[in-house]
Amino acid sequence: MKDSSANDSNLLVIVIDTNPFEWEHASSPLRLNDALQHILAFMNAHLAGRHDNKLAVIASHVGVSSFLYPKLNEVDQPGSKQQTRKNANVYQNFQVVNDAVLTGIAKLLQDPRPTLEEKDLGSSKIAASLSLGLCYINQALKSDGMGHIKPRILVLTVSPDSSSDYIPIMNCIFSAQKANIPIDVCKIWGEDAVFLQQAAHITEGIYIRLDDPHGLLQILMFSFLPDVFSRNYLCLPGQDQVDFRAACFCHKKIVDIGYVCSVCLSTSIATSSKTWRQGHCSESKLIKTQHSNTNGNMN
Amino acid sequence: MWETGENITSQAPVLFKKKQGTVYLTNKRLAWVQQSALAPSVSIKHDDIKSLFVNAATADKVILKIVEIKPDVSHSFYFSSESASKDRDEFKAGISSILSLRQQRAVNGSATPSYSGAAPSPGGGGSPVISDASAPGTPKAQAKLVGMKRGLNGGGPPQELKTRFALLKQNKELAGLHRDLVMGKHVSEEEFWESRKHLLRNKIAMDGQQKGQSSAWLDLKPETGESNDVKYVMTPQVIHSVCQQYPSIKRAYDAYVPDKLSEAEFWKRYFQSRFFHRSRSGRGANEPDDEIFDKALEEDEEETKSAPKRIKLDHINKLVDLSTTEEDHLESYTSPESTMAAGRTKESKEAMPLIRRFNRYAQRVLNSTTGPKKPTKDDTFDMNGVERAIVFEDLQEQQESSRIVLDIQDTRRYFESQGGDVRSSKIQEGQNPATILQQFYNEFTSQGVELNKPFSIPVTTFDALMKNVKANRAKMSPPKDGSQVLPAQLYQEALACHSAGNEILRHFWASTGADKATKHQRMVESLKKIQDENVKSLLIQASSLGTESLNAMRMMLKPMQNGIERALKHAESRPKPPVRKLA
Questions:
Q1: Across the interface, do A240 and B558 touch by the CB < 8 Å criterion?
Q2: C-beta atoms of A166 and B419 within 8 A
Q3: pTM of the model as a whole
Q4: In what order do the strands lie in the sheet with B8-16?
Q5: Which Gene Ontology cellular-component terms appear in the entry (chain B) (predicted)?
Q6: What does the alpha-carbon distance between residue B434 and residue B428 come to, in Å, rounded to a whole number?
Q7: What is the 3-state composition of chain B as percent helix, strand, coil, each rounded to the nearest 5?
Q8: Whose CB has fewer CB within 10 Å in chain B, the N or C terminal residue?
């Protein structure tokens, strides 16, 4: 990838977590409509930043993930609603994006999900959205012969980590890392999203967990609007510590010191744990490791 | 009953396990034969004997105890005859000499395999211990045993002690750490070296290497004295080099010195000879004839003129023998190179003797170090050896070891554990997901998103952001570290304290096992001491130099203090080891 310069256009892929079970949950401090007000304003700000800035919006819904903008493989029907809602006071590009996002989400929500399986309930398809985003970026980079597009991904999430997504998410993280695509993560409320925290750390993106979701727009504008090039000169907020500790394979406890099998990389508190070994790891392959956070370094 | 070549050196009637029999010491083993039995029922090879104990001479019974290298195997013989103590002394002397001989061998680095395998047990337990009068409870005997170990500064073979000492002398940092920890009684000498075995190994390997002879071409330069006389200094080293360079001189030297000529006379004539001056400019032919050195010169020139003998091609390593693959190249058009034979042109012909001389000299220097290369049986690769060389283990088909393949049936459950204590979104009990979806949809579409609405951003948001940014910025340019702020002396002290603390922490975590409870306890004490004394004194010293120094010092010691706190917390949380009552 060529060095970034101030004249590059930016491709921002925004992944919006639209998990209804989280947004609709009794403890949710912000409604989706309000959040979207902030997010749309942010999108417009990004588009306004440069004439050739590009945007893609992906909804990470329950059980499905789809593009909201740009609409792929969809034939515009002449005389559709979009034409009639034209507003003379709004910049055309903003209008198109806003409408696409809102109608897209509405469509997702309206769509009954006959395929909704029991196990999918409550988990958002972040990994699928990341994959879509990475594919879209790849396509955009390929079609751009000049190599002037600087892509990045911003994940706006409310759902907790979905455990079944662990491997897909990790794969996405490593592809993004390889392609030099930073993944920014904004956890709008709730506990830290451990997987995404690691994603931001590995891809040198920014991870922020909001203390007060009502200030969403401020956070977005402040932290996530600057493009990849400007980030070199800015001091942006971000996480200070990442939880990399692993969990014991059998006790499900997070451990500081543990034994790691050098073949399967599973972790355990003790070598004697029978359930863990079960013959697949012989003792000679075990390496005792200490989590680095506990080591003090002077210089 | 005895093996061939086995000689009995001493024998005596003894009781062993309350049975009458005879104990024999042969040149190979110690054996006990029960009365009227044909073969020895106890047979201990010399190399298997670890140590030997005898009880006090004044005791009623005359006992000889042999401890084998195999753990927990010992034999006690009760000498039963009338001359029991005399018999035992004979055995004691015999076995002691065997043990001391073996120890010597071990020190010389040629320990027998069976011995060296058992030797590196900590505390020098593997080294043969010979002690007198070890009847239990005899204070004198115990004192002697302990004294012997203490004399070696905590045990270990003397060779290792020497290495340790040399290492400490070489490595200042290590010496400082050693001073703090061992002299400060935080860890014992053995514990200190336990974690530094690789250093000792390296050191031993380094010391074990022999320095070869210098390969420099000898250039004899005269010292010019006051009265313009010329003086050559012949040290044994120079003489050796001359002989090395000119074998013909060596032959002459061997033939004439010291029978026919004194050494000084020999070298005097050498320096006057044509041999010596031929390579020096200008004075070639003016030298007087000298039958010894003229002959040597002749020999020498003959030697360099003649082409070196062809190397015999009997013992060529098959792996580099090109002729073995000749049949693969029948089709090709290459033929042996013939234009580049040495000495074909005039120039190269003149240079040949010199080149030969250099080559021979190089060869001799090499031989003096590695020994002349003799094609031995080991060098010639028999078919087995060739196979060994060309078969790569990596390319072999892997033998599938029998193992149970890990099969995670429910990946969801496994990865849930990986994510820590993260809950998945919960749908409240008794709620239908479909209704939630419906409700959500209705709410979403009915309210719409109004971009014109003013945003109400809480004030705290910006404050939190700024705080975060400031913290990040602070991390990017860390405050000046101790090396710039603190005086050098104090900085060194802080470094030493840090490394000592870390070392003790290492020992602390290594001794969490149940079998090392006492050491663990000791480490806890040491940690507390470091925390209370060393760290405090450093902080006090730093605070007297101003807040900047104090902060720098705090920052330097923070990680270690965190570690110590954590360790102490761990120590407290763990059940106290049962206090063993001392009888």
A1: no
A2: yes
A3: 0.49
A4: B42-45, B29-34, B19-26, B8-16, B74-79, B62-68, B49-54, B129-131
A5: transcription factor TFIIH core complex
A6: 13
A7: 55, 10, 35
A8: C
Task: Please count the residues of chain A.
Answer: 299
Give tens-digit pLDDT for B430-489.
567 777 778 888 888 888 787 888 888 888 888 988 988 888 888 777 666 667 777 888
Q: Do B416 and A214 touch (CB under 8 A)?
A: no
Residues of B in contact with A161 (CB under 8 A): 419, 422
* Inter-chain CB proximity B440 and A116 less than 8 Å: no
Q: Which residues of B touch A21 (CB under 8 A)?
A: 425-427, 433, 436
In Å, what is the CA distance from A188 to each residue of A63, A208, B427, B551, B578?
A: 21, 8, 19, 37, 52
Among the partner residues A102, A161, A257, nearest to B449 by beta-carbon distance: A102
**Where do the structural domains in chain A lie, given as residue ranges?**
9-231, 245-299
pLDDT at residue number B417: 52
* SS3 (DSSP) at B11: strand
* Selection from A65, A40, A42, A109 nearest residue B445 by Cα: A109
Asked if B422 reaches chain A (Cβ–Cβ under 8 Å), the answer is yes
Q: Nearest CA to CA, how far is A159 from chain B (Å)?
A: 7
Instruction: Return the pLDDT at A43.
Output: 94
A20, A110, A211: residue with CB nearest B464 = A211
Q: Please give the ipTM for the structure prediction.
A: 0.75
Question: Taking Cα atoms as reference points, which of A292, A287, A11, A5 lies closest to residue A138?
Answer: A11
Distance, in Å, from the CA atom of B11 to the CA atom of B26, rounded to the nearest integer, reads 9
In this structure, what are the phi and psi dihedrals at residue B32, rounded to the nearest 5 degrees? -125, 130
Q: Which of B237, B221, B214 is nearest to B364 (CA)?
A: B214
Q: Which residues of B touch A166 (CB under 8 A)?
A: 415, 418-419
User: What's the gap in Å between the CA of B9 and the closest CA on chain A?
Assistant: 47
User: Any long-range contacts for B331-340 (C-beta under 8 Å, 24+ apart)?
Assistant: none
C-beta separation of B253 from B234 below 8 A: no
The pair of structure tokens assigned to B457 is 């951003």
**B536: pLDDT strictly greater than 80:** yes
pLDDT in tens, A100-156: 998 888 888 887 654 455 545 556 788 899 999 999 999 998 887 777 889 999 999
pLDDT reported for residue B141: 38
Quick check: B469 and A235 CB within 8 A? yes
**CA–CA–CA angle A259, A265, A270 (5° rounding):** 20
Q: What's the CA angle centered on A237, arms A236 and A243, to 5 degrees?
A: 130
Cβ(B554)–Cβ(B481) under 8 Å?
no
Average pLDDT over all residues of chain B: 73
Judge: B433–A116 Cβ closer than 8 Å, yes or no.
yes
User: Given this model, what pLDDT does residue B382 score?
Assistant: 57
Strands (E), A22-148: 54-60, 65-69
- Indicate the fold that domain A9-231 takes in CATH: Rossmann fold (3.40.50)
Minimal CA separation from A148 to chain B, in Å: 29
Dihedral pair phi/psi, residue A210, rounded to 5°: -80, 140
Please report where in the chains the tokens 């005792």 appear, as a residue.
A288
Nearest CA in chain A to B477: A235
